[in-house]
Design a protein that fits this description.
Number of helices: 11
Structural class: alpha/beta
Bound molecules: ligand PBG
Largest sheet: 10 strands, mixed
Radius of gyration: 21 Å
């Protein structure tokens, strides 16, 4: 219930906004480096390749990914999330590279865990980086197969856990995958491997720059609307998040982030579970692009957009801004808030 203020002038709500010190005292939500998961892209070879539609983001080598993990550790960012840009020659219909213990992603996990063990490594579980069709599941006659895909995702999960992944991130939106993964992880003795389920993942136009980054853009035949959520739905997001927790997920995610803050709030209020949002590539591109054109103040909209996720109920945010935001937070702390 909202407590009504005394009538004016006894209540002047501007009083508590009158100086920075008071605003700091009564601020309800704050962002800190602990809230951030930093998604990074890896590729084969030694080169670093900038991603034009994501200014400031590049595909890194495995060594570059290790350096990024070191940077994360220095900045107090607890976790990074790996996305491989897979050699086109390795993309097939059977997606077998996805569960190859020596694939790019698994090599990067091993290298990071060997060099910076205190950083949590999160992975992506979906077939799209390995799929000649660009879809997250197996495609037969234009249809995306559910159960066969889940079996493949389980193999992929086990290979990642074997490589040392701390947090498995199923982004595929197949039904039944969380239970299958959790059962397989338990059976294989990976009892402490966490699952952050992309539970409410919408079929969104905001993933465009990401698909450029992992080389999936030209490949995708059709769209992902038979497995990702319809942007018009909200109750369904709660059913998905509740189901995934019941199947053994430890945390759930809403994706994209900014256009779906209402979903973040509902998940947190109605389910009271660890809730994350993914501020996706298109959101990053919008803010960066506008800042580069001088249309927005980049630093201020970055921090404002991230704080809004906290206000909406999120415990943490996956964001390409993670290192820049953590640096800003550190500078603010030095300057005394
Ligand atoms: C694919 C995947 C996507 C993203 C993360 N994992 C794209 C998609 O579903 O097509 C998008 C992330 C972003 O846009 O930043 N499984």
């Amino acid at each position: 219930m909202v407590t009504l203020p005394a009538p004016f002038p006894a209540a002047r709500l501007r009083r508590m906004r009158a100086a920075p010190s008071r605003r700091r005292l009564v601020r309800e939500h704050a962002l800190c480096a602990d809230d951030l998961i930093w998604p990074i892209f890896v590729q084969e070879g030694d080169a670093e390749t900038p991603i034009p539609s994501m200014p400031g983001v590049a595909r890194l080598s495995v060594d570059g990914a290790v350096r990024a993990a070191e940077t994360a550790a220095e900045l107090g960012i607890p976790a990074i999330c790996l996305f491989p840009s897979v050699d086109p020659a390795l993309k097939t219909e059977d997606c077998a590279e996805a569960w190859n213990p020596g694939n790019l992603s698994n090599r990067a996990i091993r290298a990071i865990k060997a060099a910076v063990p205190q950083i949590a490594v999160m992975t992506d579980v979906a077939l799209d980086p390995y799929n000649i069709n660009g879809h997250d599941g197996f495609v037969v006659d234009g249809r995306i197969l559910n159960d066969e895909t889940v079996a493949a995702l389980v193999r992929m999960t086990l290979a990642q856990a074997e490589a040392g992944a701390d947090i498995i991130g199923p982004s595929d939106m197949m039904d039944g995958r969380i239970g299958a993964m959790r059962g397989a992880l338990e059976d294989a003795g990976h009892k402490d491997v966490a699952i952050l389920s992309y539970a409410a993942k919408y079929a969104s136009g905001f993933y465009g720059p990401f698909r450029d980054a992992v080389g999936a853009s030209g490949r995708l035949v059709g769209d992902k609307a038979t497995y990702q959520m319809d942007p018009g739905n909200s109750d369904e997001a709660l059913r998905l998040a509740a189901r995934d927790m019941a199947e053994g997920a430890d945390m759930v995610m809403v994706k994209p982030g900014m256009p779906y803050l209402d979903i973040c709030r509902r998940v947190k209020t109605e389910l009271q579970v660890p809730t994350f949002a993914y501020q996706v590539s298109g959101e990053y591109a919008m803010l960066k692009g506008a800042a580069q054109n001088g249309w927005l103040d980049g630093a201020s909209v970055m921090m404002e957009s991230l704080l809004c996720f906290k206000r909406a109920g999120c415990d943490g945010i996956l964001t390409y801004f993670a290192p820049e935001a953590a640096r800003t937070l550190a500078a603010e702390a030095r300057a005394g808030g």
